[in-house]
Automatic annotation (TrEMBL):
Residues bound to heme b: 85
Family according to the record: Belongs to the globin family. Two-domain flavohemoproteins subfamily. In the C-terminal section; belongs to the flavoprotein pyridine nucleotide cytochrome reductase family.
Keywords associated with the record: Detoxification, FAD, Flavoprotein, Heme, Iron, Metal-binding, NAD, NADP, Oxidoreductase, Oxygen transport, Transport
Recorded name of the encoding gene: hmpA
Superkingdom classification of source: Bacteria
FAD-binding FR-type domain location: 152-263
Residue ranges of domain Globin in the record: 1-138
Swiss-Prot/TrEMBL site (Influences the redox potential of the prosthetic heme and FAD groups) positions: 84, 396
Cofactor: FAD; heme b
Cofactor detail note: Binds 1 FAD per subunit.
Designated name of the protein: Flavohemoprotein
Active site positions, chain numbering: 95 (charge relay system), 137 (charge relay system)
Organism: Paenibacillus thalictri
Amino acid sequence: MLNEKTIQIIKSTVPVLEVHGTAITKRFYEKLFSSHPELLNIFNHANQKQGRQQAALANAVYAAALHIDKLENILPVVKQIGHKHRSLGIKAEHYPIVGQTLLAAIKDVLGDAATDEILQAWAEAYGVIADAFISVEAQMYDQAATQEGGWEGYRRFKVAKKVKESDVITSFYLVPQDEGRLAEFQPGQYISVRLEIPGETYTHIRQYSLSDAPGKPYYRISVKREDALQDRPAGKVSVYLHEAVNEGDELHISAPAGDFTLAQQDSRPVVLISGGVGLTPLVSMLKTLAEISPKRQVAFVHAAQNGNMHALRQEVEELAARYPQVSAYWCYERPSEQDRANLAFDKMGYIDSNWLKSIVGEQNCTYYFCGPVPFMSAVYRILKDWGVPASDVHYEFFGPAGVLEQEPAVR
């Protein structure tokens, strides 16, 4: 436990972290990869270049400092990050490296303001925080390895089927090469895919949501091809999966992880709201709800650019036709002429408060949403303006966690 003096010193650094947090974490990653380049085999290089990982770490450090006297307040965040760490293969031996590098980065950025007293306090605080992560993750590693059908580290899977779902999204059906049992998972969870791409110095790991219901003899991921944009290079892993990985090929997969999961014991109506490839965990939730909760109303709301970009539509519509408690609604930003001719969408433009309210009818529901960050920010603002309790609002970031409260409101 930390003594009162250490706690007060850490709390006194909160305003500094609010201003300099991202600069510290940027310097942290520069030093980390300079001294330990082998860790580039674990971290997502694209998130580093886009600054998302630095911002996520800065938010986590800020939260830890803010709640240093009541670390139980950040236990949900510890568990969320712990899932990602377990899925990637981050182990206890990595934490001392991270601690030493973080202290050095604080000193580099703050200079003389980072006194010996402050650095010592942060060293003690980091030890306590690291122990919390290590303890939580040790339980996760044990559970992943010892559950029925579970395994440790990465397991070899074969691509049993590859299906083009839209112009940009392709599904991969994965079965174990050893033909052994598959570990169960909760709807909404993800797996990590580890690839060695020809010509690349380091391995690449990406986390993809499982897009089918549990209980199948395969895992399914549905991957969006991330082509180059003006401000962003093409996604190395997604392009490689689309272009180079075919049926019969082998992929290395970690056991399912993640805390964005369906609360199946709740009997209230569910609203699932997705944008683009963000529908993948929600389709898993939808299929599960349709099969096991026949009396629970479910509204599935999806936003896409147009019908050509809309994946898994037929699956969802078949569920809506088969199960009377399921309804589906489509919002197309820029519908094609074919979409217009076929009346293939329910709304043109963006999801807005009035339209969503006309679908939901009442606010006493539980809400799950996923998609691009601006999309999630818009949905979050709608629900917040409605007064939906935070306990009924659930969302997942693809990649490092962000902060929706600071994003733009509905367009």
